[in-house]
Amino acid sequence: MGTGKKWIIFVGILLALVAISAWYVFLKPGRNIQQEKTISIAASGIYQAYVDDEKKANALYLDKALSVSGKISEIKTNQQGQQVIVLETNDPIFGVVCTMSKPIDALAGQEVNIKGFCTGYTTDVVLRDC
Fold first, then answer.
1. Per mean pLDDT, which range of 11-15, 83-87, 111-115 is the poorest?
2. Does residue 98 register a pLDDT over 70?
3. DSSP 60-86
4. Which residue has better confidence, 51 or 10?
5. Which long-range CB contacts under 8 A does 11-20 form with residues at least 24 apart?
6. For residue 112, what are the contacts with CB-CB under 8 A and spacing of at least 6?
7. CA pseudo-torsion sign 41, 89, 110, 108
């Protein structure tokens, strides 16, 4: 077998592996918050954990399924048209921002328990797929 044929076979196998990997990464099913075991915490507790030591809080909460309880301070819509609920913390400006996977009926001032995946801390603690 010539060197050219070996290269063609090698490139063909490499392309097949790349295609299979891409299919697995992009088409695998996402995590479902309803099927995950959650860590329960108050909105003010997780916020304070991130303010005190972001690195330690990331080790405890980042990409984990959380069940966060607190009072709704604001309900808004993001640029993608998703409902976003902000939970109060002991900071008057910042809170826990929860992007909902589907809208819920809720009112500002209402006590709620929201499940979602923690994506970290900017100036707010951020949850997704709630």
1. 11-15
2. yes
3. HHTT-EEEEEEEEEEEEE-TTS-EEEE
4. 51
5. none
6. 69, 70, 71, 72, 85, 87, 106
7. negative
